Amino acid sequence: MIQEALFFSAVLFIIGVIGVLTRRNAIIIFMCVELMLNAVNLSFVALSRLYGIAGQVFVIFVMTVAAAEAAVGLAIIISIFRHHENVDLRNINLMRG
Amino acid sequence: MLLQQVAATTGHPLSGTVADWMWLLPLLPLLGFVLNGLLAVVSVYRRGPADPAAESGHGHGAGHEAVHADPAHAGAHGTHHHVPPRHKFAGLASIIGPAVLFAAFGLAVSIFGAMSGASHLEQPYVQRYFTWMPVGDFRIEAAFQLDQLSMIMVLVITGVGALIHLFSVGYMRDDPGYPRFFAYLNLFVFFMLVLVLGASYPVMFVGWEGVGLCSYLLIGFWFSDKANADAGKKAFIVNRIGDFGFLVAMFLLYANIAALDFVGVSQRAGELAPAIVTAICLFFFLGCAGKSAQIPLYVWLPDAMAGPTPVSALIHAATMVTAGVYLIARSAVLFALSPVASLTVAVVGALTALLAATIGLKQWDIKRVLAYSTVSQLGYMFVGVGVGAYAAGIFHLVTHAFFKALLFLGSGSVIFALHRAYHATHSRADAQDMRNMGGLRRYLPWTFALMWIATLAISGIPPLSGFFSKDEILAGVFARAGHSTLAEATWLGIPGGPLLYAIYGIGLFTALLTAIYMTRMMLYTFHGPNRTGETERSHLAEAPWVMTLPLVVLGILSAIGGWLNIPEIMGFLGPPQWLHHWLDPVVGAPTLAVTGGEAVHLAHRTEYFLIGGAVAIAVVGILFAVVRLKPARLVTKDQAVPERGFARVLANKWYVDEAYDRTIVRPVVGVSRRLLWTVTDKWLIDGLLVNGSARVTSFFGRLGSYLQTGSVSTYAWAIVLGVLVVLGAFTLR
Amino acid sequence: MGLFYTFHFYLFGVIAIISAVAFVTRRSPVAAALWLVNTMFCLAALYVMMDAQFIGAIQVLVYAGAIMVVFLFVVMLLNLGHASDVTDIVGGKTKLAAGLVGLLLLAEVFVLWKDDGAPAPVPAQQELEPGVIDQVAAPLFREYLLAFEITSVLLLAAIVGAVVLAKRRVT
Asked: CA distances (Å), B150 to each of B29, B251, B464, B591, in order?
């Protein structure tokens, strides 16, 4: 089943990528990133059957980081919303060179 | 070689005597420098920024420069009389400054006593302190050397220096930079003593550069006036040319005989090839020409009169400018080996003497007359040491130190009186211009009498000191013109004998000019009606005793200084040729080498004839000046009309400064401005390299910054495409 | 590995993919979030089927339960729940390009996968006992203790950062 799991993982990841590329809503993009993380988690779990338990440990770390990221990222989105009254990425270009 | 010297020194007759303390001689003025320097620095820090009396030209003692600076505050204070406060450490500085000099002079006298009492002083007494520069097998020692020549120099420097320090206490009385002045003056004496006591050329060079530095600092002492600062820079830069010569000469010595200490050089001088000796001597003479203001580097000395008058007396008349004469006497061994170089020295000296004397005829600034007189007399000294009459050159150096210091201090006294008078009435008139003087004998009787002594001495009237020393030089030239290695040599194709007779003639003619311009200066300053001004006249008075006393002492020395070296034929006056015998261990052998192994002897009739001629010329000069010049017809400076014809050429100093300006200064400035500054610095370095590289960097930076759109989707696309490319690269592997 | 197992494995995988596709195509953020939750549930099922019961459990608890709730909370807090069809999704050409890029990536991954061939067989001792939490906990608190502690610091920093960023300035 590892092959299949990895296949699902790859497809989910690509869907996440396409989501990031096609959406403009910051929150949706955020969720796409979460989807990509989940796809990677699936690979970790699948491969942990081959290479030992460390894969599952890493999944826990990824989840922790994802939680932290979600907290900070959503806070940032809230501040952006307070400033722009929307979360459209096209409005966010303060770093333009 | 080193071991030999050490052995020679330990058994030296002077070891164990007071001469062991010779290291203290320069250290005393250095101590004075440190203390006075501390006073100056402390006073600057404690005065604070709010005090407007910064060390500018305001309110200071006497001097030409002060007069220029005064009107500003004269106007501000209206008509009420303004007495600037003395420096708060003035009392302390006026004790420390002269005291270290008098102490050093006392030590010098006792060392001199020890030397007089000792016998077998053929070898110099060398004291080594530490190794200064060990370079492979070669080492330069920090060592002092005491011999008869340096003893004479030390006595002159500390003696005349102490008197001038005393004079400065009065002259600089109200200057805001009072401790600074004494700090510089003490530092100068320190370096001068290092110069004459150094046992090797490098140590001497330290003193040589040090006195140049102090000269610069003191010429520009009133640096808030740009002219003074410029004069200091001119002196410094012109001296650099000479110092280059000194350095090259040292390099040549090292490269050829690997010896730079005087003992080693005199031992090995014979190993040098004739051409090398000539080169070394000529480079040394270039150094002398810079330091001692000879053609072509004399132009800085008249400008150096921008410094306070005691500085002119000490540095630019009595001591520092004679360092070149000392250097040649010290290197007599080398110069005796090179008739060509010796003749060069004599010719340049004679021409300088003549040129400066002609310029001196038409100067109006009293200090400038004396400055050109100094250049002229230095020329005499170089004639003396150039023809191999080393003792005569040193003799004239000593007597000149006496009477020229006296003349400068006397002129300082006059300027002091005039400045006080003009200061009292807030006049802007020039306190140094002789056209503003006249008839001062009634107001400054002591200065008047003493300066006449000096004038007669410099003119060569017997039995004053200048008569003996000048006669000694001229007799030396005349004698060597007949028979010497110089007379047999040729100089630029001219046979040496006739050349020496020509130099003798120039010397005599210069003596005539000397008598004329000095008498002129005295007539315009002290005789005739007074032109200072109606209101100012009542303020004219003799300076305080602290300034007059040094004048009196120098007056006595100028009068009797000739007894140091009385000619053989005047043996009835006292023991003859004392200085000659005293210096014999140092310069005797080179003198004999020049004269071909036997002492020069003129027939007594010839000698009487020469002396009579010289005296007659001096008298004629003085009488000519007295008869021809009419002080009564002179007008003040602001009413004066410019000279015409040849007098104008002389008044403008033969346009030498202008010629230098056209041929050297302006081309150098032009090249610097156009090529070095505009092209190299502004375009190439600033434009191309500095700003250019910045522009290239910022161009690429701007290019890179266009990649930063600030839009997240662009970055996301970039990342994804990057992944695509990287993975694609892996698939193609 | 019976047919039953295989069937369900594929079933959950396909549902996860379909939910994911639905997630990226929904215009309403709330709908998208709910589809994502669905994907995560399917993934949790897959974890359990691959003997990672603990991971499956915290997948439901942390991801589907906590993180996604926060997302929904923010969506509703900012009143973004309605679909903004004009602005949210990029134009057709960009969509096409994105899809192309996605397919290319997928193709590349598969090419590389084929190149590497099948993974090495599992060593016998690494065959996992099903449903044992301590198998995950033991390395987490031994070999990866430092990383674990650092994660806690990271979380603390995230909490502080979130508060600082999101709180209103009280004047």
From this structure: 17, 24, 25, 18
